[in-house]
Amino acid sequence: MREAYHLELGQLATKLAGMCSKVAEAMELATRALLEANLSIAEQVISGDEAIDDARSECEEQAYALLALQAPVATDLRTVLAVIHAAESLERMGDLALHVAKVARRRHPAPVLPEQVHGYFAEMGRIAVTLARKAEEVIESKDVAAARAIEDADDEMDDLHRHLFTLIMNKEWEHGVASAVDVTLLGRFYERYADHAVSVAKRVVFVVTGRMPGTTSGDDL
């Protein structure tokens, strides 16, 4: 019985890692759609979001079943709770990729981004996908040091996000209010995507150590 139970816990981690892969691919494609004004890629992201939603539902259903039937404690309980919270963060990451794709579709065939900020979003997209891939790795490895390093990588995203505002607010911005609104919203989508990747990594730290990063104490549940 316990062997089957721990097999199910392993399956949960595998499903969660699979969600990371899905949301990484979604943001990679959404960024391409944005940078290339590519409608077919944008539509691919939009139609694929349902699979991410379904994956979250599957993770949550299995996690709640384990809570109800097995009454886990200590590390096992932390694992189940972490899956529930991380699946929510990953589903939101998928939604943020969806938002990027919808902006690209709404503006098609016109490009969304002025050339002035094109490079910023290419880099933000790269960082976002890297963070999701790293989250996938730490879920599989439970490497606390690697999980904590994700927060450091998020600082790069925050720096880019802040710099976008200096460009938009500069008196030399010549692309109009509508473009400034698009850039502001898109920057926020990428910044929040990275924040959720950090949240997933923190859940891994919680599973292994019993403490959420940023807290000074913690006991096994």
UniProtKB/TrEMBL annotation:
UniProt keywords, alphabetically: Cytoplasm, Phosphate transport, Transport
Compartmental location: Cytoplasm
InterPro entries in UniProt: PhoU (IPR028366), PhoU-like_sf (IPR038078), PhoU_dom (IPR026022)
Main location: cytoplasm
Pfam families on file: PhoU (PF01895)
GO terms of biological process kind: intracellular phosphate ion homeostasis; negative regulation of phosphate metabolic process; phosphate ion transport
SUPFAM superfamilies hit by this protein: PhoU-like (SSF109755)
Quaternary structure annotation from Swiss-Prot or TrEMBL: Homodimer.
Record field: transmembrane: none
Any GO CC annotation of this UniProt entry: cytoplasm
Role: Plays a role in the regulation of phosphate uptake.
Keyword Cell division set for record: no
Family: Belongs to the PhoU family.
Protein name: Phosphate-specific transport system accessory protein PhoU
Residue ranges annotated for the PhoU domain, each copy included: 18-103, 122-204
Lineage: Bacteria, Bacillati, Actinomycetota, Actinomycetes, Pseudonocardiales
